[in-house]
Structures are given as structure tokens and as C-alpha cells.
Amino acid sequence: MKLKKSAEDKMIFLYRYVSLSLTSLVFLFETSRLMVWQKLLLIVFLFLSVTAFTWIYRKYRLHDMVLKCSIALETAGIILLLFPTGGINSPFKWYVITPMLVACAHLSMRYSWTLLLSYIGLVLTFCYIFFTPGQYFLWDLILQNINLFLVLIVTTMAMQVIRVMKDELKVAKDQANETMDHIKSIYHIMETTSHNEALNLGQVISDYTVKLTKQSRAFFWLDSQEEDAPASSQTGWTVEEEEQLFEELGNYREEFREEREPFFRHLPEWGDFLMITVPMTTRFVATIGLKLGPDQSLTGRRWLVQQLIFLAELSAVFLERYELERIENQLIVTNEQNRIANEMHDNVSQSLFGIVYATHSLRQTWCHQPKEQVEEQIDLIQQSANQAVRELKGAIHSLSSKKSGGSTWLGSVKSHLHTLSKLNHVQIDFDIHGDHYSLPYLYQKALFRIISEAAGNAIRHGLAKRIDVKLKLTPQVIRLSIHDDGVGFETARMVAGGEAVSAGGGLGMMNMEYLAQSMGGEFDISSRIGEGTQIRLSIPVNAYE
């Protein structure tokens, strides 16, 4: 696997060549027992060696054992280099900083300090034995090179501090990226969820609370007994424990209503919880709770508070939208009923009243009228009946997209897939069998979202070039199959622990599974690396009803 060079790696590798060039320049012009051609040959050998070690550091920087052995070997080479280049007075004694930088940047603190102390001890020992026998005491030799040792120690300490800060920043960045991925997925759910699917909100929020905070247990508790309210739900407890937990939470109902900030609460026999009341102006009062571990640090708790605040605000937006959509739907239904009633009263009912009145009048007088006059009145009644039929057909025609030729669900799906195909240069084949006009609206919306999500995952994560969508509609069951030729992924990784898989769009898969289950259907996914992904969905048509 080819690793991308970071700015830190580029800086260290550039410093290696610059420092070697300067050190070699000093060595070339200083007085030495070596001849010029010998120095040049040695410098060329050093540059080749540095190039080889640099390649090893770049290629195997994720393999600690290879990296440790390579750094130790280069450090040993620098110590041996002191023998032909002047011993303790050799300019190359400073070059040891370069492998030390690599060690501090990629390896543990213990290894870095062991390497540094070993280098100092070996240099002092060899120089004292081979280069200054009887001229200095060991302490004098240390004082003579104290500047070198201080520079090495300070450099190592500075690099260790930078390494710790870098690791902390990396962890924070990874958490931020992971949080943003979850936020995007939750936002997608909130934006596209219909009125009836809102009943799954509690399970969605509790599941994502666990994922965002990386804790094991969380709950979403809604203080409402109304049938059209989202259900309270939890993640991490059993079904029996869920009932007991929500019963315990009911004892603190009034206290939760008064809370406006995140708060800690100890529940007897349940442990310590971090909770937040969802701020909203609707008829609902909801609380999101997270069970804390015994070793939770203060910094960790602050991060958890931030996540809960975000989830609470997002939940509040969704619940208020849910209420507005509920009221809006009621108003739409009422207005439509009134419009149809007025239209029927003004047109069809008037025509029918005229027909009834004319028929009644004709029944009373037909025996006293000439045949020609009776036939004329019958023709008028027939014309009125035909007019009423035309008006009734017109009303039905305006309400039916199938009869009026307006936009249909199938047209919307085809248009969306065509746009995806053109924008991403992907071939998408859509094959449908059955009557889509009779498909209830809730099923239409769920199928559109699943098809859209699956096609988007195949393009974004699977890098697919061809997607086959097959939909079979029968009065009893809906069957959907979506197959792509993308890179695929290991489905076992997504099943084990519920981890999201970037290659397969694990969060998107969860969204589709939620939709299928909310409609009483079955969701199945199969995939292998290099062999694409196939999604199969089966929904009984009358299960939701």
C-alpha cells in the first residue's frame, strides 16, 4: 500500500539531505588524514546510504519492527563513521539528529530515549578508548561535548512534545470526521423521513447516540402516551430492562421538564447517566440519556456533553417538523375535502338534482303528454346525465396523475437515476414489472429513498461503473434488487459490532434497513471485495396497512 507523504515526513527527509550536505561540506574542507578523493568517495557512499534508508523509512513507516531495526542500523553506521572521519571531532557526530527525528516522529518515547542514551554511551566509550587514550578523563570528554549532548536531549524532548500534540490533534480530527459522517447520515434521515416513519425516531436517536459517543448504552425517552407520538427506545439493554428503565424515568418526569442544560443523574440500580432534555415547543417532552462508565475522564465528559447537545437540538428540530407536517397534512386533507365537496356541490350535485327533479316531473305527467314531448324530455334528462358524467370524470381526471398524464412516481425515479448516471458517468439500468400506479404513497416514498441511497452508495463508496435496479410489484409483495460492480466490502465487518464501513457506506445501509423494517419488510445485503454489492428487499404490501 502506497502511503501519502505528510508535511512532517517531507520536512524530516528534506532536513536529512540538507544536514548531510552541510556536514559533508565541512568534512570536505577540514584538515584530515584522508585524501580529497577518499572524502569524495565517502560522501557519495553516505548519500547513497541516506537515500536507501529514506526509502525504507517511507515505505515501512507503519511497520514498527522494520523501522526500529533500520534506525538502529543507521545510528550504528553513524558511530562507525566517526572512526575514519576524526572521532569525537568528526562533523558527522551531529548527523545522528536525523535518525533521532525519525524515531521521535514514528516510534515510542521509550525507544527514542533508549536510542539516544545508547548513542551517547557508545560514542563516549569508543572515543575514550580509541581516540583519547590517557589524554582525558571521561568526565572531561563529556564536558567537551556537552553542547552536542544537550542539543540531542533538547531535540528529542521537543520532538516528543510535538509527537504528543500531533497524536492528540489526530484523535480530535478523527473524532470530528467520524462525527461529521454520523451528522450527515442523521441529517439525511431527518430531511427525508416522512410523517409515519417518525415513529422510529427514538430508535434512530438512541442508536446514533451510542455510535457518536462510543459508549455502550443510551436511551431516548419521550413523555407521551399518544398513539401518534414517536416511541421511546433504548440501545444496550434487554426488552425487560427497557420497560423497567422507562418506568424509573417516569418518576423524574417533573424534574426533567425543568432542566434546560445537560445534567448528571444517578439512578438507583442503573448507575450514573448524562442526560439532556430536548428543547422544543411542541406537545412532547423528550430526554436523551447516556450511561457513563466508571473511568470516564473530565475531558471525555465534556466531549460527550457536546455530542448530546447536538443530538438534542437535532431531535428538537425533527420533532417540531413532525408536528408541523402532521398539522399540515391535516390541513391539506381538510382543504382537499372542502374543494372536492364544493366542486361536487357546484357541478355534479346540481346536475344530479336537475336529473332527479326532471325524472320526478316526467313520472307525474308523462301519461298526459304527447309522445314527442315525452321523448324530448327524456333526451334532456339524458344530456344532463351525460353532462354530470363528464363533470365527474373531469374531477377524477384532475386528481389522478395516471389519467391526466402528470408526473408519476416512476417518472421521478427514472429522472433521478438518469441524473445520477449523467453526472457520474455510470450506466444505470432500471427494470420494473407491475402496476406502480396502485402502489401506496408510503411505499413509493420508501422505495425511492432506498433506490436513491443504494445508487448513491454504489457510486460514492463502491466506485461502481454499472448499477442494475430491478423492481417487481405484485398486489401481495414488493421485491427490489440492486446490484453494482463496485469494489465491494466485507459485510461481516458491518455486522460485527455495528461498525460503519466506509467502503460500503455502513450508515446508509442502516438507513435502508430502518426503512425496510418500518414497512414490515426484509432487508438483505451481500458483498465481497472486488465483486460488487447486491441489495435485496422484500416488503409485503398489506403489512403496513
Low-pLDDT windows of residues? 495-505
Number of strands: 10
Number of continuous helical runs:
17
Q: State the end-to-end CA separation.
A: 52 Å
Sum up the overall morphology in one term: elongated
Structural class by sheet pairing and helices: alpha+beta
Average per-residue pLDDT, rounded, comes to 78
The major β-sheet equals:
5 strands, antiparallel
| Quaternary organization | single chain
Q: Rg to the nearest angstrom? A: 39 Å
Strand proportion: 5-15%
Q: SSE order, as H and E? A: HHHHHHHHEEHHEEEHHHHEHEEHHEE
**Portion of residues within helices:** 55-70%
Strands side by side in the biggest sheet: 2-1-5-4-3
Topology:
Elements: H1 7-29, H2 36-59, H3 64-85, H4 97-106, H5 109-131, H6 138-144, H7 146-192, H8 201-213, E1 218-222, E2 233-235, H9 239-250, H10 253-258, E3 263-267, E4 271-277, E5 286-291, H11 298-365, H12 371-399, H13 401-404, H14 409-424, E6 427-433, H15 441-460, E7 466-473, E8 477-484, H16 491-495, H17 506-518, E9 522-527, E10 533-540
Parallel strand pairs: 6-7
Antiparallel strand pairs: 1-2, 1-5, 3-4, 4-5, 7-8, 8-10, 9-10
